[in-house]
């Protein structure tokens, strides 16, 4: 399935996105750390018969040229996107960090969704534990680990990028990250993660994005901790696929791309009420 490239205006520029078409209620699809709008391609193919799914590239990701300058911009953008789309009470779907993003935007009152669907995006830590975990993500060791594992911030030429994409596709069958994912989807997501800058391509997100987004304010009103859910009244559908713990500290190692390989369809949008 292919969609139409679109631009989604926010307060200081535009986000890139993909409009998959379809009819019915609006469904905004928000990716996780290191992913981008292409990660939702197979999921969207199951939704277009009854919904209108649109996926976006968060700041610092995919083909969105905007980078974060504070730790809340990336989820506050969701309010501007929904306003620009003129959607009334859409369903918000988020994976991993995207799950926290749609939850935070709702908790802050930026969006009043019909429901939230969270895939691996539940936060279970209290504030103190969350603060410590976010601090760990800003260490030199964490930065080196992300560069080594995912090549975040890598400045590649065309041939290097192409070779890396092919490597990811070849290894997708047996690697822990992409096991079970459709090879074509791995190729699309990986290729979209490189942004052209002159004659080079930069693998996104960059480490600077990680540092900015993980510099959370300890006394922020809306914060990635379990008390976030006290601020919600809309139905939530939770889809955990990793061990029960806080799994969406921004820019944790990405969860399995295989979790988004399709087959979730309309069932992923059941409105069960809060859990």
Protein model, in words:
The chain has 275 residues and is of the alpha/beta class. It contains eight helices and ten strands. Strands 1-2-4-3-5-6-10 form a seven-stranded mixed beta sheet. Helix 2 packs across helix 3 and helix 6 packs antiparallel against helix 7. The chain is globular, with a radius of gyration of 17 Å. Mean pLDDT is 88; it is low at 243-275.
Strands of the biggest beta sheet: in what spatial order? 1-2-4-3-5-6-10
Distance between the termini: 33 Å
Task: Please trace the helix and strand order, writing H or E for each element.
Answer: EEEHEHEHEHHEHHEEHE
Strand content: 15-25%
Q: What is the topology?
A:
Layout: E1 4-10, E2 13-19, E3 25-30, H1 41-45, E4 51-56, H2 73-85, E5 91-95, H3 97-107, E6 115-119, H4 127-136, H5 140-150, E7 155-156, H6 158-171, H7 183-192, E8 194-197, E9 200-203, H8 207-213, E10 236-239
Parallel strand pairs: 3-4, 3-5, 5-6, 6-10
Antiparallel strand pairs: 1-2, 2-4, 7-9, 8-9
Key attributes of the depicted protein:
seven-stranded mixed sheet, alpha/beta, globular, disordered C terminus, 275 residues, three-stranded antiparallel sheet
């Amino acid at each position: 399935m292919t969609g139409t490239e679109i631009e989604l205006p926010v307060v200081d520029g535009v986000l890139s996105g993909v409009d998959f078409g379809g009819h019915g209620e609006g469904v905004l699809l928000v990716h996780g750390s290191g992913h981008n709008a292409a990660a939702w391609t197979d999921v969207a193919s199951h939704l277009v018969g009854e919904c209108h799914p649109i996926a976006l590239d968060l700041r610092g990701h995919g083909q969105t040229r905007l980078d974060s300058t504070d730790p809340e911009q990336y989820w506050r953008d969701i309010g501007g996107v929904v306003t620009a789309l003129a959607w009334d009470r859409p369903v918000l779907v988020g994976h991993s960090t995207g799950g926290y993003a749609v939850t935070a935007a709702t908790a802050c009152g930026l969006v009043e969704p019909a429901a939230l669907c969270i895939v691996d995006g539940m936060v279970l830590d209290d504030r103190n534990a969350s603060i410590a975990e976010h601090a760990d993500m800003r260490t030199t060791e964490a930065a080196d680990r992300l560069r080594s594992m995912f090549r975040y911030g890598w400045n590649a030429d065309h041939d290097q990028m192409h070779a890396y994409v092919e490597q990811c596709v070849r290894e997708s069958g047996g690697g822990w990250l992409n096991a079970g994912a459709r090879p074509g989807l791995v190729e699309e997501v990986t290729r979209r993660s490189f942004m052209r800058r002159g004659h080079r391509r930069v693998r996104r997100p960059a480490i600077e994005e990680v540092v900015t987004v993980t510099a959370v304010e300890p006394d922020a009103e809306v914060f990635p901790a379990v008390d976030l859910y006290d601020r919600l009244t809309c139905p939530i559908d939770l889809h955990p696929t990793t061990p029960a713990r806080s799994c969406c500290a921004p820019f944790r190692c990405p969860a399995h791309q295989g979790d988004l390989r399709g087959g979730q369809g309309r069932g992923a949008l059941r409105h069960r009420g809060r859990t």
